[in-house]
Design a protein that fits this description.
The chain is built from ten helices and two strands, in the order ααααβααβαααα. By secondary structure, it is mostly helical. The protein has a two-stranded parallel sheet with strand order 1-2. α1 runs parallel beside α10. The longest helix is centred in the middle third of the chain and has 24 residues. The mean pLDDT is 93.
Length: 225
């Protein structure tokens, strides 16, 4: 198998995610669609960590994710009357924590460390405590606090081999606290082993960002029909 670029891996994740959502919203009886869909989150999480490692500006990276998260939540709320916090919110929290962690390491001050710790506490509150305070709604953060930590754990590893191992261990922890289908996510490590560390020929960032809310709207529209 040839080496895979960042873009190629994201296309694999995009296809898996689309099949997963087709299975979730249109064909819930077709289990294999959900199984294939388990590949999406680990690949995206790995690429989020890579994005944090290679971006020229964490501020812009966090800002673009946060804007897309806000757009997606508007789609969820208007189209589906839902408070469910989508994966873009999860990854925005991940990037925010990595950013705070970077600042703490660079500044090496008590304030920066307290700020980073406060960021982790805030993410934990949003993912694990707030859903319990809103029991009569569907509010929750996709993949929960452990899901938020997956890119953070991968980012903390120093080389490709240790990042793969960190990803695998984080996925085991996530699967242990999720439904049994989540164990299939460990198979995502296979394509990640062929990651070549390169972005690819084209800058497809906004295509990947815009595809997420667009495909949700299309699937929701089909479900209404």
């Amino acid at each position: 198998m040839k080496q895979l670029s960042n873009n190629q891996l994201k296309v694999i994740a995009m296809i898996a995610m689309t099949l997963d959502h087709v299975g979730a919203y249109l064909l819930p009886q077709v289990t294999w669609l959900r199984i294939i869909g388990r590949l999406a989150f680990p690949i995206y999480a790995f690429m989020i960590a890579e994005g944090c490692r290679h971006t020229r500006s964490m501020e812009r990276y966090f800002g673009s994710l946060a804007v897309m998260a806000a757009v997606c939540q508007i789609v969820y709320f208007v189209a589906m009357d839902s408070l469910y916090m989508c994966i873009m919110v999860t990854f925005s929290l991940s990037v925010g924590l990595i950013w705070l962690q970077q600042n703490a390491e660079k500044q090496n001050t008590l304030f920066s460390r307290i700020l980073a710790f406060a960021g982790f506490l805030t993410a934990f509150f949003l993912c694990e405590i707030l859903p319990k305070l809103l029991p009569h709604t569907d509010y929750c953060v996709d993949y929960g606090f452990i899901g938020v930590l997956v890119p953070v754990v991968i980012y903390g590893a120093k080389d490709k081999a240790s990042r793969i191992v960190s990803c695998l261990l984080a996925l085991v922890c996530l699967a242990a606290f999720s439904d049994k289908l989540q164990w299939w996510s460990l198979l995502a490590v296979i394509p990640l082993l062929f990651y070549n560390g390169q972005r690819g020929k084209w800058n497809m960032k906004w295509f990947f960002y815009l595809f997420y809310p667009t495909h949700l709207l299309v699937i929701h529209g089909i479900s209404l029909l």
